[in-house]
């Protein structure tokens, strides 16, 4: 497993743990104010992005070197 793949996996795990925490927190406490709802919704979107692998974050952390890009076939 390359460092880039390991980093992407860690990002996904952190996103999953954050989403689980957020769901548990909403179920236990609920949402009292509209501001809190917006903050929780934004947190959920960030968690979903991380679970999907956060491609821009991974690309930023591990930029492709010249000539190393993936070649399209077909």
Question: What count of helical segments does DSSP give?
Answer: 3
What number is the mean pLDDT? 82
Query: Structural class given helices, strands, pairing?
Result: mainly alpha
Strand content: under 5%
The end-to-end distance, rounded to whole angstroms, is 27 Å
Topology:
Blueprint: H1 3-29, H2 34-51, H3 55-61
Helix pairs in contact: 1-2
Descriptive overview:
This protein is mainly alpha-helical and 74 residues long. It has one domain (3-61). 70% of the residues lie in helices and 0% in strands. Helix 1 (3-29) runs antiparallel to helix 2. The longest helix has 27 residues, at 3-29. The model has no long low-confidence stretch (mean pLDDT 82).
Summarize the structure.
The protein has 74 residues and is mainly alpha-helical. The protein has 3 helices and no strands. The model has no long low-confidence stretch (mean pLDDT 82).
Protein traits:
70% helix, single chain
